[in-house]
Design brief:
- The protein is mainly alpha-helical.
- The protein has 2 domains: 33 residues, no CATH class; 62 residues, no CATH class.
- It is built from 5 helices and 2 strands.
- Strands 1-2 form a two-stranded parallel sheet.
- α2 crosses α4.
């Protein structure tokens, strides 16, 4: 199986035929979808950070730096696990990890 993440590069028939003949042969080809924030846990983290920054309302560079440092500390392991699960990733329970 070959995963291709840039199907636009293969839009012309010549490129796709060359790839099929020279590299893929009989391999199954799967074209990945375009980037989607729905499947990216980092987007959830950025959302939380931005929410905290808005609530603080820093107006100077120094205040923004302090606010950003604080906002990053508000992200917990439970947050991260929840974001990964929300995006469809299989994440073991925190209790299972502690026992292992």
């Amino acid at each position: 199986m070959v995963l291709l993440n840039r199907p636009k590069l293969l839009c012309d028939g010549w490129s796709l035929k060359l790839l099929q003949r020279q590299i893929l042969g009989e391999a199954m080809r799967l074209f990945l979808p375009a980037y989607s924030p729905d499947y990216s846990p980092i987007e959830e983290a950025f959302s939380k950070i931005k929410s905290v920054l808005r609530s603080i309302g820093a107006r100077t560079r120094e205040a923004l730096q302090e606010a950003l440092e604080y906002a990053c500390t508000t992200i917990t392991a439970s947050d991260a696990i929840g974001w990964f699960r929300h995006c469809g990733y299989a994440v073991p329970d925190e209790h299972e990890q502690a026992r292992a």
